[in-house]
Amino acid sequence: PCLTRLCSPLAEKTGKVLGEFCRCYAEQYGVALFNSVRYEIEGNGGPQAQLLHRKVPLEDHVIYSGNLFQYIEENKKWRNRFCVVPHNYGLVLYENKLAYERDLPPRVLINSAGYKILTSVDQYLELVNSSLPGVTPKSGHTPILKCPTDFPLILWHPYARHYYFCVMTGKEQEKWRAVFQDCVRHCNNGISEDSKVEAPAFTDAVRMYRQSKEQYGTWDMLCGNETQVLSNLVMEELLPELRSTIGPRLKGKAPERQRTWIQISDAVYRMVYEQTKAQYDAVTAKCEQERPQMESTIRTDMDQIITSKEHLASKIRAFVLPKAEVCVRNHVQPYISSILEALMTPTSQGFAEVREVFFKEVTDMNMNIVNEGGLEKLVEYMEKLSHLAFHPVKMQSCYEKMDQLKLEGLQQRFDVSSTSVFKQRAQIHMRQQMDDAVHTFETLLHQELGKLQGKDDLCKSIQRILERVLKKYDYDSSTVRKKFFREALLQITIPFLLKKLAPTCKGELAKFQELIFEDFASFILVENTYEEVVLQSVMKDIMQAVKEAAVQRKHNLYRDSMVMHNSDPNLHLLGEGIPIEWGEEYSGQPEAEPGADKRRRAKQVVSVIQDDEGVLSYEVGAQVLLQPGSPEPEEPDPGAPPSSPDGVEEIRAALVKENLGDGVPPGAGAQRATPASPAPGADVPPSAGVPHTTPASPTPGTETPSPSAGATCHQPSDKETGEDVAPPAGECGPPQPTGTTESSEGVQTEF
User: Fold this and answer.
1) Where in the chain is the domain with CATH 2.30.29.30?
2) In this predicted model, what pLDDT tens digit does every residue of 8-28 receive, in sequence order?
3) What's the pTM?
4) For 672-731, where are the alpha helices, taking DSSP H only?
5) Which of 98, 303, 322, 700 has the most crowded CB, counting CB atoms within 10 A?
6) Strand partners of residue 166
7) 588 in the Ramachandran plot: left (φ > 0), alpha (ψ -120 to 50) or beta?
8) 62-188 domain in CATH 2.30.29.30?
């Protein structure tokens, strides 16, 4: 009820925040459009990449699928769920594998942007206790969550609902954690870099808005697509007031109040999301409508706009630069080399590990071809190698190197709230470089196959191509890392400088507005030009620091003067060809089946195979565990439906009893979900869980239809949102527990 009373004030404050942001966005849109057209006309001769880039790397593939337990908040029970991770990295949960194979709608679709993956209940309780100050369970009281195994996987979000999973072994937990982290990493990177106008306009508008509120430095919640990021921006302002208003009114014991608070926060987040989506869509549509006229003006008056901007910049530079240079000299320059070294060490180790993993996989494949023979084995291995970059477990050793990134005292000095933004960015670069290397290798090898005679020729050719690709990788890796270091240094130092200079400079900027012609006011902003001048004050020092690191050959960086030009002039032409389908092209099978049958045979990047220890597979173990007739430690409740033991103690007891009964040590009764080095041919057959469809990564806003007689397979699009619990417009009921549902009517979908 208290949330219902707050509905109108919350909507009003949300509208106010969004109104200010949309004004920033409209201003930044014109600047971004001008920059895009200018770049298109003038170009920028940066170093040319040597490796090929694949356009659609995961078409018709899923990352992983398998069983785990999920805690259902509505009935406080743990249930076995079949989880599929499709090509767009949404988490799709089905009632069971049979429901998945029959194309029934999923129970939950989760977009994991902004979530943290926790593997300890204590970690989770610490975050929950800090989210609502003054509400901490006393020792001895039942905590908000109890896990039936020692291997939990918890998805925690500062505003949205939380998800609770667990598995039966430590190795499974590690592999699911790697999969979940890949999902978070991908979903966090939700703003498309292909958009040369909308993306920079949006990110600059977010930055300008936060700076107007005296919030400088990095921001951890710049996660997900534009609507998700904006929702986080609004929640950042709403939450303190919401906590102080609602927190004291919560009733019950501490765990119950914490649970209620999570539900309230989630309900507000959904309400904010709906309002945000509507207002943001409106402002982007308006900008898009005005774009043709704006672009026409830019192309007609490009020279005059550039001249006007340079005149403005010269006046601002004369006013700002002396102060900025003193600030750089005293507060930034002494620390640039320390920041760079802190960034270079883990990043370069991660890229070196990418090189090592790629080298090892190709070398192992070559040795196995020598031992096992010929083209048939090559096809099996190449089908797996082609998606190496998207194998969360095999890439984990590369990603883990970034965990060493520590800025120590520098983090506090430069107001860097967290290093996670730099870690994730570097990890995304690693994955891209791995995929580029793999794609270049398979393209060159595919070209050579027709000329080869015999196994010896094939192995020599593989080795020769591997060496060529590694040289290209070293060059591209150096280029990508140097760019990453420069961008990271700017991202750390520029907000710090702007904050330092604000008291003496920001109030004086208004007087420069009169220097801009009214016709060009949409494309030149005083605030942006001021920031460019501040950037120029430190850019020389940053470029010099990175250049010196390259000259000293630190971390295998190449000097800027070392440029590879057209070493393979025809290679990029090869990359434009039809994607290589190793299995279909060399398996000797007849023509490819129709689209539906092809989806039915879709491959899985991470194979589910049996361990060498002879333990029960996870699915078999789970089915035995969840059989109605399986032994239970005590008499079942006569009023309960004949189903699985759902409570924590019952599941633990059943796990122990099943494992001891089969002669398997406790904790070993689970198949390892994602082995680090799957054997060739170990992909799951269609009957074992290969997807019929690829459900989309969902965000809130769209209801998923319930199945009906004769209905076709549920196929949400890549832009489907999937939230069916938001109250009707103008209403705000009390927070309802959302997420999974136990009825067969409809599908609950999530952010």
Assistant:
1) 62-188
2) 889 999 999 999 999 999 999
3) 0.79
4) none
5) 700
6) 69, 152
7) left
8) yes
